[in-house]
TrEMBL record:
Cofactor(s) listed in the protein's UniProt record: FAD
Name assigned to this protein: Ubiquinone biosynthesis hydroxylase, UbiH/UbiF/VisC/COQ6 family
Recorded metabolic or biological pathway in which this protein acts: Cofactor biosynthesis; ubiquinone biosynthesis
EC number, UniProt record: 1.14.13.-
FAD-binding domain location: 10-362
Family annotation (InterPro entries): FAD-bd, FAD/NAD-bd_sf, UbiH/COQ6, UbiH/COQ6_monooxygenase
Taxonomic placement: Bacteria, Pseudomonadati, Pseudomonadota, Gammaproteobacteria, Cellvibrionales
Superkingdom in the source lineage: Bacteria
Record GO biological process: ubiquinone biosynthetic process
Organism (species): Congregibacter litoralis KT71
Length: 415
């Protein structure tokens, strides 16, 4: 659908990235009646045959780790068959600390799962979401366009676009960590800079990864390598997310391939053999950004606009998807009862229900890098023993893996 009158506009999502489109699909599937879901996105929709570089920045060359709970959600939406060609399963996760004896191997088989998670290249996920949205008659894409302002109007919100105004029963702000709309509406945030940068790249190695992801803690921070599906150019591909001091990240971003590969092998080792190919490298500053207020009457902050996390455990997108699933389920329960989707108490209840999962996930992503960077000898010994203990005690491993997979939240959603 290309247009809709203000009177028909029930839910408006500001931001058409992966979180915004996923929420739109969830709402379209779960909400009873005939609500219109409008997605406003600043970039034009790519043509169906567009190259990945033509997609929204959220769909760039970066990869996203999908937890088991996220995979379950996409299966429920019927998207999994379309995603399969661009997926690489994470069968195992090898966690270690450079120069120390402690390590742990987390396995999907131990949980009775086909995989611990999956890695998908963002262009593949983006194409799949866009194709699904375009097949939904009650999802209206307004792009390129932008929400320039919004204000309470009756029980809902009056939303200003570039050339017109729309009335929405509920406004969802999902336009990223640097959300201008969130700031314009006065949602307070707190930002903690880690004083570090993440260096990302796609790499090809000599040896097959075998579906194993690696999380290696170094003196500067974690180094993660995630399995990617093979391409025409390389069979043994992996996605790198390397936490470094800003100056070192900047230097390695522009270093020649030989120098970069030597530095990587020095930090990671030869488990995968030589680095055979280095893709485009990019770096960005690391920070934890949280919205101190996520709901108001007829307004919800979602995705990176609500919480942008350290990438150490790959949990930011998965947490956002659990939020989106919980919000859509909250609204789906309320509508048959005659409650307005923008009801303050309803949205406050959603926020309370999400507090524990959000707090635990944010604390883990915030604390884990610091834990492995402290140089105290006794603490170092404790960390090494803890990593070894993960291999020695299956129940400890199981609890850790289920938390990371978002299974507690998934069980609560279906409970």
């Amino acid at each position: 659908m290309d247009g809709v009158s203000a009177q028909e506009n029930h839910i408006l999502i500001a931001g058409g990235g992966m979180v915004g489109l996923s929420l739109a699909l969830l709402l379209h599937r779960q909400l009873p009646g005939e609500p219109i879901i409008t997605v406003v996105e600043g970039r034009a929709l790519p043509a169906s045959d567009a190259a990945p570089a033509d997609y929204h920045p959220s769909f760039d060359a970066r990869s996203t780790a999908l937890s088991y709970s996220t995979a379950t959600l996409y299966r429920e939406l019927g998207l999994w068959p379309s995603l399969l060609p661009g997926l690489a399963p994470i069968n195992e996760i090898h966690v270690s600390r450079r120069g120390r004896f402690g390590s742990s191997l987390l396995s999907g088989k131990e949980q009775g799962w086909d995989a611990l998670g999956w890695v998908v290249e963002n262009p593949c996920l983006g194409r799949t979401l866009l194709a699904a949205v375009q097949d939904c008659p009650r999802i209206v894409m307004r792009c390129p366009d932008q929400v320039t302002d919004a204000a309470p109007a009756g029980p809902g919100m009056r939303v200003s676009l570039r050339d017109e105004e729309l009335d929405a029963d509920l406004l969802v702000i999902a336009d990223g960590a640097e959300s201008g709309l969130r700031s314009k509406l006065g949602f307070l945030t707190q930002r903690k800079s880690y004083g570090q940068s993440a260096l990302i790249a796609n790499l090809a190695f000599e040896k097959d990864h075998g579906g194993c992801a690696y999380e290696r803690f170094t003196a500067t921070g974690p180094l993660a390598l995630l399995p990617l599906p093979p391409s025409d150019q390389a069979a043994h591909r992996m996605a790198l997310v390397w936490t470094l001091e800003p100056a070192e990240a900047a230097a390695l971003e522009i270093a020649d391939e030989s120098s970069f590969s030597r530095a990587l092998i020095e930090a990671f080792g030869y488990r995968l053999g030589r680095v055979e190919r280095v893709g485009d490298r990019h770096s960005y500053p690391l920070a934890l950004t949280e919205a101190l207020e996520q709901v108001r009457r007829a307004c919800v902050v979602l995705g990176n606009a609500a919480h942008a996390l350290h990438p150490v455990a790959g949990q930011g997108f998965n947490l956002a998807l659990r939020d989106a699933a919980a919000l859509s389920q909250t609204l789906a329960r309320a509508v048959p009862e005659g409650r307005a989707v923008g009801d303050t108490n309803l949205l406050a209840g959603y926020s309370r229900d999400r507090q524990r999962d959000q707090a635990q996930t944010i604390a883990a992503s915030d604390g884990l890098p610091n834990l492995f960077m402290v140089s105290d000898p006794l603490l170092s010994l404790g960390r090494d023993l803890a990593l070894s203990g993960m291999d020695m005690f299956p129940l400890l491993r199981r609890e850790f893996v289920q938390q990371a997979a978002g299974m507690a939240a998934l069980e609560a959603r279906h409970g």
